[in-house]
Amino acid sequence: MIEEVDKDKLARITMILWSLWWRRNQKCWNDKIPTIFDVIRRARDSHQEWLKAKLRHTMSDHGNTTSVNYCWSKPSAGKLKCNVDTAYYKEDNVYCVGMCIRDENGKFVQAYTKRMQGTPTIVEAEAIGLKETLRWLWHNYRTDTDIEVEMDCLQVVQAIHSTNNNNTELGSMISMCRKLLSLNKNCKVSYISSSKSDSS
């Protein structure tokens, strides 16, 4: 049966099991009981770190997607950089996307935020955030200026890079992002570690 599970799902299952074991050890050795949210977040973060390591060794620059950056840096002369992030407030049934554009000197150019209602998964919310960013850039920066869009969700960046398609909600968002990138060819999407994405 396990042979029928694709590698990505198997990796997720492995990270969840490992995170559950970590929770058990916290109870046994530290008399602490991490919440289920802590377990899921730890599994998600570990999975993304694993994907980052895998991407670094197996993927190269392709089309509109670059692979991995480890710290924020100013864009090249004549270019812009747009950092995007999504915040998820499950208790309030709300998630928000924020984006900030800086120029070659690292100076602030423009920012945009959008608040949405719903309960998507964290990765789906990140994909929706990227879609909203690309749509906003298409309407406001339809020029020859190159724009690099950076985000800290490696799974979304990897999905855009992949040629695979699926009929899930996430797959639908990824397809929309690809379409927007094909229309706005001066944009590229890259991954930046969340601990390094502060451009201030």
UniProtKB/TrEMBL annotation:
Matches recorded under InterPro entries: RNase_H-like_dom_plant, RNase_H-like_EbsB-rel, RNaseH-like_sf, RNaseH_domain, RNaseH_sf
Domain of life: Eukaryota
A Pfam family it matches: RVT_3
Domain RNase H type-1: 83-193
Keyword terms: Ribonucleoprotein, Ribosomal protein
GO cellular component terms given for this protein: ribosome
GO molecular-function terms, A-Z: nucleic acid binding; RNA-DNA hybrid ribonuclease activity
SUPFAM superfamilies from the UniProt entry: Ribonuclease H-like
Keyword Ribosomal protein: yes
Keyword hit for Cell membrane: no
Name listed for the protein in its UniProt record: 60S ribosomal protein L23
Organism: Trifolium medium
